[in-house]
C-alpha cells in the first residue's frame, strides 16, 4: 500500500489498535499488519514518530514496562485519544461514502 494513501488515516488506525489494551511499539506494528491482512507493513521510521506525535498531542500515554526481561515503552489510549478515535472513525465513514459514491455511482 502506498504511503500517500495512509496520510491522514494512520493516526486513527494506531489509536484503534490500542483502544482496548496497552501495547508496545512492535506489538502495534504487528497488530496493524494482522488487522490489515498484511497490507500495512509499516517501517519503524513511520510508526515511532507517529507514536511520539500522538503522545505529545495527548492522545496516547506511555510507560516503561519490563516484558520478558526487556524494557519496552507501552502505549495506551487516553480519554482525549478515545475522542480522537471516535472522530477518526466518523471521518473515515464519511470519506468512504464519498469515494464509493464517486468510484461506484451506479452500485447500491
From TrEMBL:
Residues 14-86 form the Transcription regulator PadR N-terminal domain. It holds the Pfam family PadR. It comes from the Bacteria. Gene3D superfamilies: Winged helix-like DNA-binding domain superfamily/Winged helix DNA-binding domain (1.10.10.10). Coiled coil: none annotated. PANTHER family: PADR-FAMILY TRANSCRIPTIONAL REGULATOR, TRANSCRIPTIONAL REGULATOR RV3488. This is Helix-turn-helix transcriptional regulator. The lineage of its organism: Bacteria, Bacillati, Actinomycetota, Actinomycetes, Propionibacteriales.
